[in-house]
């Protein structure tokens, strides 16, 4: 039998200015998926370990399983996979937990094929897999997990990696509180002002320019979310104080990680991010929530096969 295990890191989707199209990976947490090649012609999820809530074993309803079912469409007839999932990212945390299982699955599966498929196909398969949990296919978590670092994640075509300064670090604080992605997306229903789209687009352009030009002032000028954050902030206990703690600690900007409830900030040094993480955790504690802290370069790791 051919068998491989892959690890996919956590990620921060949206990055404040790029709803559903921008994200970056984060070192320190992730999912592991083991895939065995079979001649069954289908996908079977045989084990899920480490999940805080029951996850579906039916392949089409499981993010890793659905990603592999989509992948089979690009492979010779008769091939199949057995899947074992070891969760390392809390569900409903805003850290890309559903995407990580899908990404690790396709990376592991690709490693057992005689003729591996392209990264673009892996990207599309993993997006389809994540839709099993979130209800929609978007790549702001999948893209950075596959490529590592900060990534522009288009609906079609290959994701695009954005260079980031080596000094740029993130503090990510995950409160012990579950916020389901579907609920967070439902909060976005309704109309938006055209002016807000202009402001958001300006922010995205400035932040990306700052990354390309190694310019912290441009990143800081662009780091704002006038579209999504205002509608989701009330879903996260203590959010305003946690965000302010990050800004008071020198953040270039701070916002909601993915659909939440995790909150993150970007900093010009690892030391600054570590100090801020403690202040952000203290603010969550004032709101009655314990939390976990992660500090990572914004140019975080990519998913890969574990030797």
What does this protein look like?
The protein has helices spanning 63-72, 97-111, 119-134, 142-147, 181-186, 194-213, 216-222, 229-232, 239-248, 270-286; strands at 3-13, 22-38, 43-49, 80-86, 150-152, 160-162, 169-175, 253-256, 263-267, 291-297, 304-305. The chain is an alpha+beta fold and 307 residues long. It has 2 domains: 3-161 and 301-305, 2-Layer Sandwich (Ribosomal Protein S5, domain 2), CATH 3.30.230; 163-297, GHMP kinase, C-terminal domain (Alpha-Beta Plaits). Helix 2 packs antiparallel against helix 3 (119-134). It is globular and about 55 Å long. The model has no long low-confidence stretch (mean pLDDT 96).
Which terms summarize this structure?
Ribosomal Protein S5, domain 2, Alpha-Beta Plaits, 2 domains, 7-stranded mixed beta sheet, 4-stranded antiparallel beta sheet, 10 helices, 36% helix
Q: What would CATH call the architecture of the largest domain? A: 2-Layer Sandwich
The tally of beta strands, per DSSP, is 11
Any idea what the shape is? globular
Class inferred from helices and paired strands? alpha+beta
> What's the number of domains?
2
Helix and strand run:
EEEHEHHHEEEHHHHHEEHEE
Residue windows where pLDDT falls under 50 for at least 5 positions: none
Stated plainly, the CATH topology of the largest domain is called Ribosomal Protein S5, domain 2
How many angstroms does the end-to-end distance come to?
16 Å
What percentage of residues falls in helices of 4 or more residues? 25-40%
> What's the Cα radius of gyration?
19 Å
């Amino acid at each position: 039998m051919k068998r491989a295990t892959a690890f996919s890191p956590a990620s921060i989707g949206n990055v404040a200015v790029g709803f559903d199209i921008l994200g970056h990976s984060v070192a320190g947490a992730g999912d592991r998926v083991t895939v065995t090649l079979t001649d069954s012609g289908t996908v079977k999820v045989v084990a899920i370990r480490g999940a805080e809530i029951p996850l579906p074993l039916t392949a089409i309803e499981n993010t890793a399983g659905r990603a592999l079912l989509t992948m089979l469409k690009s492979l010779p007839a008769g091939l199949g996979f057995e899947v074992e999932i070891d969760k390392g990212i809390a569900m409903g945390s805003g850290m890309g937990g559903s995407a990580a299982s899908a990404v690790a699955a396709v990376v592991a599966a690709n490693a057992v094929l005689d003729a591996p498929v392209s990264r673009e196909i892996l990207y599309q398969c993993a997006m389809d897999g994540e839709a099993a949990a979130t209800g929609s296919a978007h790549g702001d978590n999948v893209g950075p997990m596959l490529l590592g670092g900060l990534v522009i994640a288009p609906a079609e075509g290959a994701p695009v990696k954005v260079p980031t300064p080596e000094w740029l670090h993130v503090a990510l604080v995950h409160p012990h509180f579950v916020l389901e992605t579907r609920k967070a997306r439902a909060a976005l229903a309704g109309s938006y002002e055209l002016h807000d789209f202009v402001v958001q687009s300006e922010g995205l352009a400035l932040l990306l320019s700052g990354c390309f030009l190694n310019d912290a002032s441009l990143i800081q000028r662009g780091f704002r979310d006038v579209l999504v954050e205002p509608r989701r902030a009330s879903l996260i206990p203590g959010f305003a104080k946690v965000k302010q703690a990050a800004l008071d600690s020198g953040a270039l900007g701070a916002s909601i990680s993915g659909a939440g409830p995790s909150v993150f900030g970007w900093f010009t040094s690892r030391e600054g991010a570590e100090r801020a993480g403690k202040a952000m955790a203290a603010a969550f504690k004032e709101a009655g929530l314990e939390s976990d802290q992660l500090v990572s370069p914004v140019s975080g790791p990519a998913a890969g096969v574990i030797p």
